[in-house]
Amino acid sequence: QVQLVESGGGLVQAGGSLRLSCAASGSIFSSNAMGWYRQAPGKQRELVAGITSGGSTNYADSVKGRFTISRDNAKNTAYLQMNSLKPEDTAIYYCYYYNDYGPGRSSNYWGQGTQVTVSS
């Protein structure tokens, strides 16, 4: 089992910045990935950004150039720096983590979610 503890989030004006953190503990495998999805009211959950244990990153087109994901492997913690926030970034942000055991084999975990609200 892997436990995820999220922090950060809150209320910010458009153009502002926030930073999310997600700390993983428990059965951490050497090959893994972490990141965030978000879900706005009435919309499907969508990938925001992810980063592997090797440092490879991916971003949703809507956040490229504004959000930066990073991680501290020694702390098993990922960070999402969100700059130039827009009202459309308002959503619940869910941290995810998965252990990658090879093709088609993984174990997936979710954080409790944190609210990000951007006012116009």
Give the arrangement of secondary structure elements.
Elements: E1 2-7, E2 10-13, E3 18-26, E4 32-39, E5 46-52, E6 57-59, E7 67-72, E8 77-82, E9 91-102, E10 105-110, E11 114-119
Parallel strand pairs: 2-11
Antiparallel strand pairs: 1-3, 3-8, 4-5, 4-9, 5-6, 7-8, 9-10, 9-11
Explain this structure to me?
The protein has no helices and eleven strands. 0% of the residues lie in helices and 61% in strands. The mean pLDDT is 96. It has 120 residues and is mainly β. It has strands spanning 2-7, 10-13, 18-26, 32-39, 46-52, 57-59, 67-72, 77-82, 91-102, 105-110, 114-119. Strands 2, 4, 5, 6, 9, 10 and 11 form a seven-stranded mixed sheet that branches.
Summarize the structure.
This protein is 0% helix and 61% strand. By secondary structure, the protein is mainly beta. The strands form 2 sheets. Strands 2, 4, 5, 6, 9, 10 and 11 form a 7-stranded mixed β-sheet that branches.
Features:
120 residues, four-stranded antiparallel β-sheet, seven-stranded mixed β-sheet
Instruction: Provide the β-strand percentage band.
Output: over 45%
Low-confidence stretches: none
Q: Level of helix content?
A: under 10%
Enumerate how many helices there are, as a single number: 0
Question: What's the helix-strand series?
Answer: EEEEEEEEEEE
Shape: elongated
Number of strands: 11
The major beta sheet can be summarized as:
7 strands, mixed
How far is it from the N-terminal to the C-terminal residue, by CA?
A: 40 Å
Mean pLDDT: 96
Q: Structural class, judged by helices and strands?
A: mainly beta
Rg is 14 Å
